[in-house]
Amino acid sequence: MTPSFMFRLVVSVRRGSACNLPGAADRYATLDLARAAGAVLLRHERVSRIVIVRNEAPPAFVQWLER
User: What was the pLDDT predicted at 38?
Assistant: First the structure.
C-alpha cells in the first residue's frame, strides 16, 4: 500500500521560479511535515510566502506561511 500524500506547498517568490528550490515540489503526508518544509523554504531570500493546500482537485486552502 502506498502512503497518501495529502498536502503540498504553493510557493511565491520575488523573482524567477520556485521549481528549483528543494521541497517546493514535494508532497507531504501530514500537515506538520508540510509546515516544517515551509519553514525551511521561508529561510530562502527569494521566498515571500507559502500556501499549504490539500493535494486534491481543486486544491483546498489550509494555511498561509509568511515571513
Answer: 95
